Amino acid sequence: MASGLRSKLLAVILKRRRFFSSFTLRSDSPALGSSSNGAREALSRLRFERNPDRITQICRSVDLKPDSHIDRISYSKAVCKLKDANDTEGIRSFIRESMGRLGCISERAASHFIILYGKGGLVSDAVKLFEEMPEMGIERNILTLNSLLFSCVLARDYRELKRIFMEFPRKYGLEPNLDTYNIALKGFCVSGSANIAHSILAEMERKGIRPTRATFAAAIAGFYQEEKMTDVGKMRSLMISYGIEQGITIYNVRIQCLCKLGRTAEAKALLDGILSRKMKPNTTTYSHLIHGFCKQGDLDMAKSLYREMIAKELNPDFDCYFTMAYYLCKGGDFEAAFVICKTCMDNTGKVPNISTMTTLVRGLIRIGKVEEARDITKQVKGKFSRNADCWKRIEDELPSEV
Description:
single chain, mainly alpha
């Protein structure tokens, strides 16, 4: 019985499939093993790899399994890399081959591959896999439908998202749950159709499905994006009627949205309101504000918020450090950017991109901070071998030591 299912599965997967010699592991490609260490090494190699053939070879050298978290990250990274290379057929073949290598696919694995298709921009393939699941001995359920909806969101195929959301529950006898509505709502709001939030929330109420803070966060973000402030107010009032407190999560959504609209003064006023209510802002709160003020060119306020965040013993993430370093260099404040980059390297083990670091080193040289330029060049060059040639050229620009 199991053998028959396996044969049927392989027949479905390999249907209309093309095999490419590039997917054969070359003899000079080292095997990474099947352990989590092998998967981590594969991730490390995938990070900077751009050649589609080598991307798939790296993955084939590891026995990836969708039930492993680190392996799922590797799958995702590979698909994103192939998409960046515009290798659509490569994505399709990679996913089909990955499924074929498993032999027998679980419901959870099918959901993962449906999402991978969406990440690769292949929604039609995701739909096809969903529809063929019974032929593979897998029952379609609300989990796999939610994965299909999420696949549409990842691919930004909002027309297909709407079709699937409207038709598939009835077509396949599946009852939408909270995740179904949250995924669909987020997609509609991101696509500029926030008004549908009212009808979705009404349907949820009719079905006795209680919305959560995440539901309202998606709707509020959508209405902010469309600058429909009256609807933002309605969503906040509806939250109260459900007994859901605004909390720092909703405040962060509002702050981020206002910053994206260039309304940083209003966003800062929300922070002041948080503090006056004795609530505790978090790293995300300050990161959104810092990015907003940096983008507007108000570096003094951004630096003030950064100092305030540190004083509250909140640890900036890499994106916050990168934002500060980039905009400080752009604004010519190389000394402050130097401190930020050093702190970033010490706390995260990462450095901003080569372009920002090049600007920083050359800026430090220009203002006479040669020792600082030499210090950070030496630290980066010693820690990161990638772009070694570029760092050698930058190092050659440094004045000779006396």
